[in-house]
Amino acid sequence: xxxxxxxxxxxxxxxxxxxxxxxxxxxxxxxxxxxxxxxxxxxxxxxxxxxxxxxxxxxxxxxxxxxxxxxxxxxxxxxxxxxxxxxxxxxxxxxxxxxxxxxxxxxxxxxxxxxxxxxxxxxxxxxxxxxxxxxx
Length: 136
What we know:
This protein is an alpha+beta fold. The protein has a single domain (5-134), classed as Bit1. The chain contains four helices and seven strands, in the order βαβββαβαβαβ. It has helices at 17-34, 66-79, 96-104, 122-128, and strands at 5-12, 43-44, 50-51, 59-64, 82-87, 113-121, 133-134. The strands form two sheets. It has a five-stranded mixed sheet, with helices on both faces. A two-stranded antiparallel ribbon has the order 2-3. A hairpin with a 5-residue loop joins strand 2 (43-44) and strand 3 (50-51). The protein is globular.
């Protein structure tokens, strides 16, 4: 199946594995919340039990250094892509409102990103993630 849009999640390469997984999960929910039209239909098993919908398109997960995250962030802003962000200060908060305040306190030109998700037209997303490598 071909998609007009693409989803990429970039995660800081030197985080502990548990933080990489946590950041990836949070960012994926950000993209799903921002793009309800990209959600697939609910799942159902052979006995008729219903399960939650999943994003209906693949997500590419990239490992990036701080410069690569910042470059993708700036390119995403410039190209009008949907962005979900996770900054280092969010590791020390305990709830969503505190996360938003932590992000708001970041410098807008150089937030301390540890993770970034982008969604948009394939061409624009490819340019925003240029130079990043798929996560091993």
